[in-house]
Amino acid sequence: MPGHMNRSKASKKIPLALFGLGRAGNIHAGNIERNPHCQLKYLVDEDVERCNRFVEEFMSEAIVVKASEADVVYNDPDIQGIVVASPTFTHPDICLKALKAGKDVLCEKPIAADMKTTALVYDEAEKQGRILLCAFNRRFDPALLNLEERVKKGEVGQIHRFKTSSRDSPLPSIEYLRISGGIFHDCAVHDIDECLWIMKELPTQVHTMAHCFTPTIAELDDVDTVSITMKFSSGAIASLDLSRLSTYGYDQRTEVYGSKGMLMNHNTSPTGLRHSNSNGETAQPMYYSFPQRYAASYRGELVHFLNLIQGLEKPRIVKKDTLLSSHIAEACEESHRTGQAVSLSYDHLMTSPSAHEKGAVTEAGSVAMEQDTKAAATA
Question: How far apart, in whole angstroms, are the C-alpha atoms of residue 256 and residue 234?
């Protein structure tokens, strides 16, 4: 079951090390401490004071290590897995050292800032026979897992439209935005991966319109408001709506519309409670930010990683999935920069099987990934 540990081989706690105690790192650290099947042995970050506060709060037994002294982690034979949640520019070096040391790796996206380096890190994982899991955590969200399964069963028929709204709350700090890699690779890549995972198709063309309403973000040569349209060889159209700042909460919605009907994943709130009286109806606000909205996703992601370490599951996200999402995100950014639609080719990426590749036409009539790749290459 998604988010449930297979206990058949879990005879003792799996020792893990975490690199980075920032936005995502705090979530991973808390989940590791709460999961009875693993142990946070090392917490690696240059901000030792922040790490010590975490250790005190959780009464953790984790050993705090400066990033500059991380060799002690790589050289520890007890460590089976390393979770990488440090700044993006540090990901390739940490992943490579961990893999070469024989450790399995769960890495926050992106694996690297460019596709060539990303591919090299995956190649090293294959060479070492180790797991490299890129953290596209929406694939572990219970609501989206249910939506994907029902689309796969053909409940909406042939897909005509796919829509997402992803509006951030609160506005990330300028320090984070400076190292985030930009809205296309920090935010849009999640919506792109979700779209490919659910639709089982690759777009043949993308077109982006974007603007920046926030002066501090404009100074970074980035944007805060994005609309992406993607066209598929089956005729389906996807629309991705992104914003860096939602004043009313963390707005996350998905809609899949097809020949037989529609599936929608609405915003949720902590209790779903509504109050109706003579003045009308009020509802509890939606989740404030991503740690609350995707709490179950992060827990499920960790469980999947632990099961991978034990050889109990196959990876749900593989090299090709990561490269495809990055490739399309680059095309979306290119479309924004040039003001032109960008046609896509995938020949250079289609050399290994994908976790979401089907290789046949579905009962609902959607063109599967393998066939759609050929069509996209000739578009």
Answer: 15
